Amino acid sequence: MRAVQDRHRTGPEEDPIRTLRFGVNYTPRHGWFHSWHDFDPARAREDLEQIAGLGLDHVRVFHLWPLLQPNRTLIRTGAVDQLARLVDLAGEVGLDVLVDGVQGHLSSFDFYPEWTRSWHHRNVFTDPEAVEAQAALLRTLGRALADRPHLIGLQLGNELNNLVEHNPVTVEEVDHYLDTLLAASREGVRPGHLVTHSAYDAAWYGDGHPFTPEASARKGDLTTVHPWVFSGDCARRYGPRSPQVRHLAEYGTELATAYALDPARPVWVQETGAPEPHIPAADAPGFARATVRNAAECANLWGVTWWCSHDVDRSLADYPELEYTLGLFDSAGRPKPIAEAFAEVAAETHSIRPRDTALVLDCTPATRSVSGPGGAYFEAWMRLRAEGVRPAVVLASRADDAEYLAARGIKEVVRPS
Prior knowledge:
Elements lengths: L5 E3 L8 E3 L1 E5 L15 H13 L4 E5 L2 H4 L8 H16 L3 E5 L4 E2 L2 E2 L17 H18 L5 E5 L15 H18 L5 E3 L5 H4 L7 H6 L4 E3 L8 H5 L4 H4 L1 H12 L7 E6 L11 H13 L4 E6 L30 H10 L3 E2 L5 E5 L14 H11 L5 E4 L6 H6 L4 E3 L3
Parallel strand pairs: 3-4, 3-12, 4-5, 5-8, 8-9, 10-11, 11-12, 14-15, 14-16
Antiparallel strand pairs: 1-2, 2-13, 6-7
């Protein structure tokens, strides 16, 4: 596996240069994730070769929970073997791999095994037997993949907080759920592999949402953020070429850093993309370049993983319109202009630019939306950014902690006016 991060100075007066990871979330071109029903290694390899051809270094991959674990006490060996084969194929073409375990939620669809539904409904977050079943699945996947030298690690699942609507849960129950599944994942993989979890933006911006910023920023080996331009209607509110849109991933990285206990905790922009019509196709390459370049200046950035590799084929029905055009490649496997732009910016040399000014975020779980698009704090941060200031984010509880501020290189603390 490639090194997570390698920083060095090229000269006494220059900003630190580091190696970042650039990859893509793999969406199979033929049949989308339904392709797991009749997995075709040759087609998968073709997709992965296209991705590697862009010069990217990793993919994030997903199997479907109902196919892996159709019964609470049955994990299908054949399905696990399929996943392992996909991981091997990625390695053969030079790609490292993060595996998401419990899907869960993918591109507007939820995938529940039948044993969690109908007359024997189980809350996937709080039912002890349901939680243990997911833990068993993650242990199994980790053990099956642990010997792969190109495995980055294991993630609990994709944006599991999307399942909250059908599975009511408290903050304390979420914490127990995450702790249980993270521990199970560590039992499977080997030391050196990452163990992570992910949540969509409600964890950061949603008033009272049970998945909290603290859980995202303090549990697992690094923080993952999914700064989508449709969250809070950001692109429509401010415009597709606005600073608010083009600095959104940078802002999300700095917001995540503020909630971490460790000032140096890495942050992974694990999903970002150019959904039409929020980002018109003609603006997509420029959006990709600006998003990556701005985020790359953040000291704690681990890497950027684009959503997604291939467009959903329009022969498949019932997706939101934006899902059909999110790929770097179209549904015929041809690279789109955004693919060339992302590959270009991924190949650039990226330097860390120090942030010695921090804007204080003072909110409660019930007023978290101030930090999202349209919120007073979000707009204050973006005003500073547009004025040429490169603000960090600091929580009000740490704004007077001199040792902490020094560890982050912050010399001036300002409050929103």
